[in-house]
Amino acid sequence: MAKDRTIVYQKPTCTTCRKLFQLLEEDGVDFQRVDYFVDPIPRDKLADLLARAGVSPRDALRTRAPQYAELGLGDPAVGAEAILDAMAEHPDLIQRPIVERGGRVVIARPVERVREIL
Fold this sequence. Notes:
With 118 residues, this protein is an alpha+beta fold. It has a single domain, classed as Glutaredoxin. It contains four helices and four strands, in the order βαβαααββ. The protein has a four-stranded mixed sheet. The longest helix has 12 residues, at 15-26. The two termini are 15 Å apart.
């Protein structure tokens, strides 16, 4: 991947994602959008993205997603591998937006965090 290529893993209806797009456009950053509800992030790729972001799978969970409670993911006994499996199967569990640029990754919450990798 080219060092300056920016990829945003996102959900089009996400307000934070839309705010990020506005910030990137205002900053003149060329970026590719990946709707991971249409093009799911493979489990291995998701694990890699989170590792490069320095974030554990548990810390990348959206606790407001209905599947969080339904699958009992709040239980501290649920390990990272099981959380990754759940995220791969239920993408609404993944915090967003995830921004990848070169070898660096950040979960852009708040959106200004993206500037850490630009």
